[in-house]
Design goal:
Elements lengths: L7 E3 L9 H5 L5 E4 L2 E4 L9 H5 L5 E3 L12 E6 L13 H11 L3 E2 L2 H18 L6 E2 L4 H10 L13 H17 L6 E7 L2 H8 L11 E4 H8 L18 H4 L6 H6 L4 E5 L1 H12 L8 E5 L15 H12 L35 H17 L13 H10 L8 H16 L2
Amino acid sequence: MSSFTHSVYLDSEKCKGCINCIKRCPTGAIRVRGGKAHIIKEFCIDCGECVRVCPHHAKKTRYDSLDTMKEYKYKVALPAPSFYAQFNNVTDTGIILKALIKLGFDAVFEVAAAAEMVSEMSRKYIADHPEGKPYISTACPSIIRLIRVRFPELIDRMLPIITPADLAAQLAAAEAMEKTGLKREEIGIFFLSPCPAKVTSVADPLGIEKSEIDRVLAIKKVYTALLPHMKHDDAGDNEYKRAGRIGVSWGITGGEVGGLLIDNYIAADGIENVIRVLEDLEDSKISGVDFIELNSCTGGCVGGVLQVENPYVAKTKLKLLRKYMPIAGSHLDGKVPENSFWTKEVEFIPVFRLGATPKESMEIMQKIDELAEALPGLDCGSCGAPSCRALAEDIIRGVANERDCIHLLKRYLHKISSDLNSL
């Protein structure tokens, strides 16, 4: 059983008990009880939607500080492809890469470069294993976590290849050790993350035993520190530029499938749209496609909550930036890097199961149906649950009662008042 490590958490002092988060959470992982929100850790997939919609900034994300760079003798930055889309008037990634060196990093390894290698591996794997089509992208950690708790029949369809960030970390660490002669623990691999799900995937990885990433920095924090170091004179080729159009495109929806060079695919973004696609796939309503790219954030990784730019503006910037890039800057050259595939099975975790056995679950489900019928069906959220059915489940689980529903409470109070008046 997973420890359910999470990077999203609640700052209870800032929480006002509003219901914006409970209505937005795709897995119903949030309840408001006693005037404060509570995150049910077993249900949470760290998609960051609650962070996005909280008007009081009570939902926070854990990530490392830039000060942790002092802990290592040699530091390597791994910028995500979406990182390039955060800056204005940048027409060359070399400007950003050089600025990272000026900020204090000793080297840079583009995640976009590793993404191009993952694209090559994915093309070959799909061609060699046609029986598994359609394959589901595993680049977005929120999607993997969603599937393992809600769509057990789709686990075998997930592409068992590590993420570009993890591949970049492996290659960067090996390169740094060879170049410097330092021990692995003296080298810090820093991933610049666009979202909390990727922060969680480093602390609690799925599909692999351990990530080679040592620290995760929020793009929004690096962005502010990097601005003074950016100079247009740094444009042009340098030793850190390894990626082309295919790798950089991974930062937006459709970028991953673009690297597969196929036409029969689905690319969906936004967690509600993703769930709809997964439900249709589970119900065998989808056929004739080889690959399904899913991003929990609207627009792809450019929509992550740890970034600064509007995702639609960022998408446009990334398209302009890649316009004059080569098709690809990194290739496998016939050799697949070691540890490029999953080494650990992703197992279904039945967090939504109501009973210990199917029979018990059916009996509980019947009780929930009966209780839900008695509720008003308004899904107003005033009870602290996202829907009347969710409240019914909470009541059956013993963590809520019928009078949490304000409408039933009013009826109850009116009945007491009427009874008292009749005395």
